Amino acid sequence: MGYRKTKECLTELFPDHSFIPLEDGDLSFTNLEEDEIYAGYYNGVLVIAATEFGIDYPTKIPERFITTKFGSTIQLHAMHSASGWFAFAVWENKQIKRALSLSPDSGILEDVGEQYDFEKPYWEGKHPAIDPEDQDEGGEEYSFSFHPLELGEKALNCMYGYQLEGCIDDRLFEAEEVPLLRFRRTQNSPWWKFW
Length: 195
Description:
Elements: H1 3-13, E1 17-21, E2 25-26, E3 36-42, E4 45-49, E5 73-80, E6 85-92, E7 95-103, E8 107-112, H2 120-123, H3 148-160, E9 179-187
Antiparallel strand pairs: 1-9, 2-9, 3-4, 3-9, 5-6, 6-7, 7-8
C-alpha cells in the first residue's frame, strides 16, 4: 500500500479536509467515527471507508466520487447491524449498473438495475430470515424472505472475496490481512473571512 498515493487520492476526493494520521487499521475495522476515514491504495484499487458512503440512497452519493479519475468501476458497500440495513451500488464508466438499499423497518429504499447472480437465491426465498419451523403461527412475518445483513455478507464474499460474519468460507481472505491507513479529518477553514 502506498502512503503517498493514498493521501493523494484522499486529498482529491475530500478537497475541503486535512488529514491527521492515526494508528493504522485494517479492512475488518471500518465502523468509524464521524471525523475518521480509512483508506488504502493497492495497485490501481482504492479502498475508502468514510461516513459519506453510509447513505440510504446510494445513487445520491456526491458526484465527485463517481467521476473520479481513480477508476472506471466504482463500488459501494455499507451495512448497519443495529438496524439490519444493507446497501450496495456499482457504477461502470460513470453509469449506475446496480443499486440496492433495504432494511426491515424501511423496506426497499432503492432498487436500480438488474439483480446480480449472487442476489437471486435470496430474492427467491432460498435463504429465509426465519426458519419456517421457528415461525409462530399467526405471528408477524419478517419484512423480506431473507435478512439484509446476510445478503450484505454474501455481497462482500462475491464482490470482494471476504466476509465479516456468518459461516465463513476458508478459501476467502481475512479482512484483517488488508491494512488501511487511518486518519482524523478536519474541515479546512476558508482563506477569507467576513468581518
